[in-house]
Automatic annotation (TrEMBL):
InterPro entries: L-lactate/malate_DH (IPR001557), Lactate/malate_DH_C (IPR022383), Lactate/malate_DH_N (IPR001236), Malate_DH_AS (IPR001252), Malate_DH_type2 (IPR010945). The active site is at H187. The keyword Signal does not apply. The keyword NAD applies. Its EC number is 1.1.1.37. Catalyzes the reversible oxidation of malate to oxaloacetate. Residues 156-322 form the Lactate/malate dehydrogenase C-terminal domain. This is Malate dehydrogenase. It holds the Pfam family Ldh_1_N. NAD(+) binds at G11, A12, A13, G14, Q15, I16, G17, N105, Q112, V129, G130, N131. The lineage of its organism: Bacteria, Bacillati, Actinomycetota, Actinomycetes, Kitasatosporales.
């Protein structure tokens, strides 16, 4: 039998955590034959609710779930972690300036990065979901100098999945017919969902749609503002779809992208496509054997260039702000 994989989830008692844990335990994160140990990290106020979720996990009698540990100590929570899903974050509240938000999250992600550095397994893979996800990932990465930087990633897979769904609806295609879509930049309103290299049933998506006004005025804003539309409709932020995207992100990272396709991940830039080295920005990537590679050589037209640059500018400003705050 295989050795169980240690999966740590922070913010485990939150709504994304609630949608996420059952799918990890049932084998959707890593595969149907991979046993898991769950480590639930919460702040003290969240521990009791996390215990309740753990009781429900027990009651599912998942064959792959070996044990569950609940803690508010990051050193314990990340001990031996192979995969860490950093979901808990400090939400932006009314009247909060960006600097306040970044420093509140620095107080969470800096110590978590250090705890990962000191306690996680050598093969640790980190996905940051909690917002501002890209910059939180940068803070954690900077606090973990002994961990290869490329193990710190931020989630843009929900944006990627949203874009696929919107493009499928527009073209009448099945989602499974859509390949090579890209989210560039920040997981924020400036993100750029790019269909110029995407394929719909083997045909170029941009040529098939052939409607730049739809792209600029409908598609891009619909994808970028989908989170707000869901809050408006549901009265609560997206949780199941965010959890699903986190599952997809890690599953693809570990198990590989299909031939002839790629995915989108927020990763430390190596300078490709003019994105400054070191910032955590979303790129088109292929994955294989637990590692990822940026898809190279794509032709970036003017329409795309302006939008990638705008999102990257926001990321460099966030980086400068956290540098100023001494968080990186
Ligand atoms: P959620 O579980 O709904 O969200 C958690 C984080 O995910 C937020 O930062 C949220 O950002 C982010 N997120 C990213 N993408 C999405 C998306 N598409 N849709 C919705 N959210 C998204 O928050 P809850 O308040 O329900 O739960 C948070 C939990 O985290 C609480 O139990 C709290 O106790 C815990 N926590 C734990 C910490 C720790 O372990 N040290 C630290 C801080 C909190 P956004 O705010 O922009 O919606």
């Amino acid at each position: 039998t295989r050795t169980p994989v240690n999966v740590t989830v922070t913010g485990a008692a939150g709504q994304i955590g609630y949608a996420l844990l059952f799918r990890i335990a049932s084998g959707h994160l890593l595969g149907p034959d991979v046993p898991v140990n769950l480590r639930l990290l919460e702040i003290p106020q969240g521990l009791k609710a996390a215990e309740g979720t753990a009781m429900e996990l027990d009651d599912c009698a998942f064959p792959l779930l070996r044990n569950i540990e609940i803690t508010d100590d990051a050193n314990v929570g990340f001990a031996g972690a192979n995969v860490a899903l950093l979901v808990g974050a400090r939400p932006r509240t009314k009247g909060m300036e960006r600097g306040d938000l970044l420093s509140a999250n620095g107080g969470i992600f800096k110590p978590q990065g250090k705890a990962i550095n000191d306690n996680a397994a050598d093969d640790i893979k980190v996905l940051v979901v909690g917002n501002p996800a890209n910059t939180n990932a940068l803070i954690a990465q900077a606090a973990a100098p002994d961990v290869p930087a490329d193990r710190f990633t931020a989630m843009t897979r929900l944006d990627h999945n949203r874009a696929i769904s919107q493009l499928a609806a527009k073209t009448g295609a099945a989602v499974s017919d859509i390949k090579k879509l890209t989210i560039w930049g920040n997981h924020s309103a400036t993100q750029y969902p790019d269909i110029f290299h995407a394929e719909v049933g083997g045909k170029n998506a941009a040529e098939l749609v052939n409607d730049e006004a739809w792209l600029a005025d409908t598609f891009i804003p619909t994808v970028a503002k989908r989170g707000a539309a869901i809050i408006e409709a549901r009265g609560a932020s997206s949780a199941a779809s965010a959890a699903n995207a986190a599952i997809d992100h890690v599953h693809t990272w570990v198990n590989g992208t299909a031939a002839g396709d790629w995915t989108s991940m927020g990763i430390p830039s190596d300078g490709s496509y003019g994105v400054p080295e070191g910032i955590i920005s979303s790129f088109p990537v292929t994955t294989e054997n637990g590692t990822y590679k940026i898809v190279q050589g794509l032709d970036i037209n003017e329409f795309s260039r302006a939008r990638i640059d705008a999102s990257v500018k926001e990321l460099t400003e966030e980086r400068d702000a956290v540098r100023e705050l001494g968080l990186i």
